[in-house]
Amino acid sequence: MPFSFFKSKRVTPDLSFIGVDMHSHLLPGLDDGVQYVADSVRFIATLKEMGYHHFVCTPHILHGIHPNSPETILPALDIMQKALQEANVQVGTGAAAEYMVDLEMEEALKKNQPILPLGKQYVLIEMSYAAPSSNIESTIFELQLQGYKPVLAHPERYNFFHHMPAQLTRLRDMGCLLQLNLLSLSDYYGTGVRRFAEKLVKENQIDFAGTDLHHQRHLDALIELASQKSFYQLLQPLKLRNQELA
Q1: How many domains is the chain partitioned into structurally?
Q2: Which residue among 2, 207, 219, 231 is least packed, with the fewest CB closer than 10 Å?
Q3: What are the start-end ranges of the H helices in 111-203?
Q4: What are phi and psi of 21, to 5 degrees?
Q5: Looking at the domain assignment, is residue 245 inside a domain?
């Protein structure tokens, strides 16, 4: 049963202690997330009611599937910002990207191609769910050489880390920060993901938390999760860095 871990007193959703959503797919028409700007506005308006005041949207950059770049991302941000203004939804917005760690990213870094960071220094990266990227360590090192702080998206969703947690510890020791998907604290992605997410939270290994919002199902599940008192008892002790990005 979904959300079976959080059978506790129901509360009004209040994610203001996070405040800044730094991982979402709310820019319209760029990837597997929101396709229409009207949905972007509607989702952001709902998230604002839940306590968010700033959104850094992070469309995928994945060679051959989501071939985004600053040239596609920034115009989409402009369209969304204008729509939010017309709807009188007053929030801060910005754009970065979720970079797939692959050979194309490695080449882009070597060529000093423009990077869209979270804030001024953080870069959100991801890997395939099937296996760790063979160049994950060299990419982390190259980002650091260029003055960035890499942030690995949703490490709890990589099943290979569940069986080989030392690999994740190694990335952490290299200086790679970790970003939790909030829905991982429910059974939305499965019980194994939820258990590993809880482990990372309890061990204080999480630096950022994001919605990773793509569509209405994600929003509905987040509202349900954020209505459970146990969610806050688990997450609020963390010293998240989200507010640095406002």
Answers
A1: 1
A2: 2
A3: 136-145, 159-163, 165-173, 191-202
A4: -90, 115
A5: no
> Would strands 98-100 and 60-61 be described as parallel, antiparallel, or unpaired?
parallel
Are 212 and 181 in contact, with CB atoms under 8 Å apart?
yes
Locus of tokens 């959100």? 124
> Residue 103 belongs to what domain range?
16-239
The answer as to whether 90 is a domain residue is yes
pTM value is: 0.95
Residue 11 or 1, more confident:
11
- pLDDT at residue number 7: 56
The residue type at 71:
E
Polymer length of the chain: 246
Per-residue pLDDT tens for 106-133? 999 999 999 999 999 999 999 999 999 9
Query: Which token pair is 236?
Result: 């609020």
DSSP conformational letter for 245? G
Q: Give, as one character, the DSSP assignment of residue 81.
A: H
Residue 134's CATH number: 3.20.20.140
Q: Are 26 and 34 in contact (CB under 8 A)?
A: yes
Q: Which of 73, 157, 171 is nearest to 115 (CA)?
A: 73
- Tell me the longest C-alpha to C-alpha distance in the chain: 53
Residue 98 belongs to some domain of the structure:
yes
Residue 11 domain-assigned (yes or no):
no
Task: Determine contact, residues 242/202, Cβ cutoff 8 Å.
Answer: no
